[in-house]
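Per reviewer request, we include the raw input and output of the structure prediction for the construct analysed in the revised manuscript.
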Amino acid sequence: MLKKRKLTFIVILALICSITVLTGCSKNKNSGENLPSANSLITNKFAQSMASGHYSQTIKSTEMKQSSRDNGYFKGTNPISMTYSLTNKDKTQGEQLWLTDSELYLFLEQNKGKWIKNKSTADNFDPDQVTRRFKPSAYTALNKAVAKHAIVKQTSTNYTVTYNGNDESVWKKLNSLIVDTLNTPGSQNMNVAQMVSAAQVQNIHISYTVNKSSKMITKIDMKANFSVGGQYNFAWTSKFDELNTHSDLSVPANIQKDAIDVQKLKASQKADN
């Protein structure tokens, strides 16, 4: 009888272990490995990682025959280098800029190959349209939402934190960042921006690459597909890389020297009158 009871206990224990494995009730949901949590990997050194870097963003709609692209470098929010282009049907317009806390250097095609310099807040220009996509605080809510659903994996040198899905909580936090892709000075497309705010998400992919040794984030990839009214489909991408490697970024000396100073030009014209 005692042997039979021992046998029964062993069978039950084996059955419990089998159920635990099948339902994923292990100490770590990431393939049983003892990995750091998604939340710690994303949030602990996010601000330090975003101190500087390279970035690129795109958004396009085949049905609208419209696309925009911007890319460049940043050192916090001072300075920022950006090259931007907007294609509407067969017409493309673009601009380049350098933005500091106090100055805006702008290069437009119609400027006959000349850079101009102005105050960063002149002519109703809102620097926050550019700078907020580089502020770590702009990603706080998104990072927390992603961490709740993300999967952690590892290689010999890195951890990757990955989210794939269409969770509404993640989409709401991502939405404003997508709109920022369109809000670039001189080329705002507010009609599309309003459409994005009311869009229906189809799929989101977000991936963070974290260095195992330093725990610093080295790359962030974000993609989203969404539609508006079942009529217009959009594809958006955003990539941050070379993170924390551009601490020496500065406005090139030749641009600072040769740019036409709008404030001085206005003062001179006023004096002549």
